Amino acid sequence: MKQIKKVVLKNIKILKWFLISLTLVELLYTAMNWIDLKTIIALDLEYRVNLILGGVHLFFVGFFVFYIWRFMPYNRKEKINNSLMILFLGVIGMWLWIPNKKELSKLNNLTTLV
Predict the structure, then answer these.
(1) Block mean pLDDT (10 aa), the chain, length 114
(2) In a domain, 74, yes or no
(3) CA–CA dist 71, 63 (Å, integer)
(4) How far is 22 from 87, CA to CA, in rounded Å?
(5) Which of 6, 44, 70, 111 has the most CB atoms lying inside 10 A of its own CB?
């Protein structure tokens, strides 16, 4: 059971770093949209940057939903609620879902009971 706790905690930290990088990339892209629209239009037309970022975003959304359903010790209703939150809110939903220290200690107690 201790290995389950360590794996889940390690994976949550990795997911948090992926989420930080995704958030920074999307914020930079949004800021570039506001600052220099001509450059962004040229990048979108020539290199399809918007499609690449959309694909990366959908990959992360899918990965987070997969992680919730596969590894998190939640009941079915909580898994559905968390999945819908991530699907509809995107990056904001991912930030809302990432467990804080109090929730991580609660997860530790749940995994020891399993």
Answers:
(1) 70 94 96 92 92 96 95 91 97 94 77 54
(2) yes
(3) 11
(4) 15
(5) 111
* Cα–Cα dist 63/76, whole Å: 18
Provide the token pair at 100.
């804080």
- What one-character-per-residue DSSP string does the chain give? -HHHHHHHHHHHHHHHHHHHHHHHHHHHHHHHHHH-HHHHHHHHHHH-HHHHHHHHHHHHHHHHHHHHHHH----HHHHHHHHHHHHHHTHHHHHHHS--HHHHHHHHHHHHH-
- By the 8 A CB rule, do 66 and 80 touch? no
Residue 16 domain flag:
yes
pLDDT digits (tens, 9 = 90+) for 15-48: 999 999 999 999 999 999 999 999 999 989 999 9
Domain ranges, residue 37: 2-109
